């Protein structure tokens, strides 16, 4: 049986997750021919994921429909794990190293939905059935910098300074709440420096 690695990149919008996902995919692909890599994201493009995106755009009050959105996230994640993540990881054989790179996971749900008024202990409990990543990166950034990076795009309801300041605290508190391998990455640096931080941690797996 081959080796399997599950890596998550999470954190606030504007922190450069997508770019780091691309660089990490390319790095692993070129590092060793035994790496088989799946890059994915949440919410997914499935039925529940599409509904989540619609609600995030339409609901102007961050605390509106919190429980409904949480339920959709859980259904979307369950489908994602059972139909995409687990099958790919478990398909490794021989010298294969199967790697799943996921842009956002339950760490986002815990941070965002706790900001919507749902108890963090409840969020940890309902997400406890999902597989823990081998390594999670929380991309950390001052909210002012994140908003400046996103200034040329239409803002969602979560993209407001006070909200994002509190949201950042939620993300930074996750390593104390969750018993798993979480690394906080300073995303304010140059792309090269940020990726070097990520690469060093991945090389330790």
SSE order and pairing:
Layout: E1 3-11, H1 17-31, E2 35-41, H2 47-58, H3 66-89, E3 97-103, H4 106-115, H5 120-126, E4 135-140, H6 143-149, H7 161-177, E5 182-186, H8 191-202
Parallel strand pairs: 1-3, 1-4, 2-3, 4-5
Question: Your description of this structure?
Answer:
The protein is α/β, with parallel strands linked by helices and 205 residues long. The protein has a single domain, classed as Rossmann fold (3-Layer(aba) Sandwich), CATH 3.40.50. Helices cover 51% and strands 17% of the residues. It contains eight helices and five strands, in the order βαβααβααβααβα. The protein has helices at residues 17-31, 47-58, 66-89, 106-115, 120-126, 143-149, 161-177, 191-202, and strands at 3-11, 35-41, 97-103, 135-140, 182-186. It has a five-stranded parallel beta sheet, with helices on both faces. Helix 1 crosses helix 8. The chain starts with a strand and ends with a helix.
């Amino acid at each position: 049986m081959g080796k399997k690695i599950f890596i998550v990149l999470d954190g606030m919008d504007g922190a450069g997750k997508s770019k780091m996902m691309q660089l990490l995919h390319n790095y692993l692909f070129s590092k060793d021919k035994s790496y088989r890599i799946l890059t994915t994201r949440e919410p997914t493009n499935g039925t529940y994921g599409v509904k989540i995106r619609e609600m995030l755009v339409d609901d102007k009050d961050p605390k509106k429909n919190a429980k409904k959105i949480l339920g959709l996230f859980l259904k979307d994640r369950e489908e994602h794990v059972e139909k995409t993540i687990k099958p790919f990881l478990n398909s490794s054989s021989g010298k294969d190293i199967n790697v799943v790179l996921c842009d956002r996971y339950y760490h986002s749900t815990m941070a965002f939905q706790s900001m919507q008024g749902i108890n963090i202990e409840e969020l940890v409990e309902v997400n406890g059935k999902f597989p823990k990543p081998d390594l999670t990166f929380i991309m950390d950034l001052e909210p002012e910098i994140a908003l400046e990076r996103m200034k040329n795009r239409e803002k969602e309801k979560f993209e407001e300074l006070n909200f994002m300041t509190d949201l950042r605290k939620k993300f930074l508190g996750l390593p104390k709440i969750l018993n798993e391998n979480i690394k906080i990455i300073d995303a304010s640096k140059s792309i090269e420096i940020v990726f070097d931080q990520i690469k060093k941690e991945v090389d330790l797996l």
